[in-house]
From TrEMBL:
This is Flagella cluster protein. InterPro entries: DUF7385.
Amino acid sequence: MEELDVEDGFDVHDYRHGLKLLKEDRETMRLENREGFACPACSRPFERLLVSEKRMHTFNSPPGPFCLVRTAEQLLVLTHSK
């Protein structure tokens, strides 16, 4: 299982083959993990990924466990199954 590489930032295009775009606006993107990529925080497969370039972001609490990963430019929120 391939883990998302966030060491030098996160580029969604590197993983486009396994992530389905659900919603996108100017500064945020929501994706579904169709390839079983592993979370860079806990190494478990994740279900959904929110990528935000906003300095501040408010979102509803996702159901089940989630991980937060911060790169220099982005906040990544990865949700997992219960």
